[in-house]
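Can anyone check this?
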Amino acid sequence: MRKIGLQEIEEIALGAALLGAGGGGDPYVGKLVALGAVRECGAVSLIDPEEVPDDALIMPIAMMGAPTVLCEKGIGDMEYRRIYDMVRRYFGREVYATMPMEAGGVNSMLPIAAAARLGLPMVDCDGMGRAFPELQMVTFTIGGVSATPMALTDEKGNSVIFETITNQWTEELARAVTMSCGGSVTVSLYVMDGKTLKQYGVRGIVSRSQELGRAIRSVKSAADETPEARFLRLSGGIRLFRGKISDVLRTTDGKFNHGRVQLRGIGEYRNSCAEIVFQNENLCCRVDGRILATAPDLICLVDAETFTPVTTDALKYGKRVLAVGLKCDPLWRTQAGLALVGPRYFGIDADYIPLEERAKGGEANV
């Protein structure tokens, strides 16, 4: 067990934005919510999954909907209390701890705020190890865990508990209610016991986010290697491309942000072009028409000078970026994992090949 205070929140937010793989929303608003809760209620205890009793009730907290809407609506402390009371009444027992469901920017922060305001510890674990756009896309689905009962509430006090026949149905129905509630809501889903958490959770994700945040902040402090080399070494990333954004195409279908960003190479890539396709999160990276990485591996864009993550919402013409690939959690590389989040699920006409295997051919360099 250790404490998450103000400094830790800053580092976690920065690292989680990288693990969001372009999605998960800008952590800035979520960070403000978490900082405010910790200032008011005190630091949060972060516990290892092995510290959780097998029969303990764990309540993940997340925001569902458009992060840009959350920036306008905000979130208060009453949503967490309503969610907590709904879950406690449904199961007839107290909640032991909360946890994040994904490592994306906003949803890495809100569980910290909830834990602080509810006086609960938070487990160093999540269900993705990154961010994905749909709520059934978690490692717990691989383990046969139901997303429901799913508690949902908005800032006005509207609330509902879903019981659905599949996790895909949970996504469909909850997404419709979210749109009716103004585009963003607070939810708890995949409520589980400690034994299930230990079997199918992605462990150490909060600590991993914090380590990445520290790494990004320290990339220019080393005298014996370049900032880029230090960033790649500390993050475990594989360089895919370096270029300047030449075009951004976006469409919105009411649920997700779809699009593609085109890059013109700079430096050693000056005679090449790259294209990255996204659905909230970056899904496929092609360089000169050749695929270098696909989901479920992480495709991340960072500022070419500061190495701070660039989300799909922040893509702008002329910005110089470095495209980096990070390996996904091993569970996503199983047959069941690829059925949920592999390239073909997202309409990409390619089989999944691990990022490091594609890199062996010389198309990408560590």
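Reply from J.R.: I decoded it. The first helix runs from residue 6 to 19.
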